Amino acid sequence: MIKNRQSTTSPVQRISDDKVGMTCRFEDINSLGFWVNTQTGEGYRFTEDSLKAGHSPVIGYVSNNDEFTLVSSDPYSPISKLRQETANLDLPVRF
Predict the structure, then answer these.
(1) In the β-sheet with 43-46, what is the strand arrangement from edge to edge?
(2) How many CB atoms lie within 10 A of CB 75?
């Protein structure tokens, strides 16, 4: 599991490519990257601004499908590349 979100004094965690494929709950995501909901196939870009405490946008996610897999450590990768990487991880692609 990934540790809880960073405090206001801690920098956003950058994650290496060897962590691609790890899965955690939405509330435990604290690193930059493109994450995919393992059940629905929806994709989410987690940028530095979205992860810093007190920054907008703050997103609350409530669902029974609360498992996310890191597809890319680069949240700005092109969608076509992200779709291919998601499929390579045998995850549904619905973005």
Answers:
(1) 23-24, 68-72, 33-37, 43-46
(2) 18
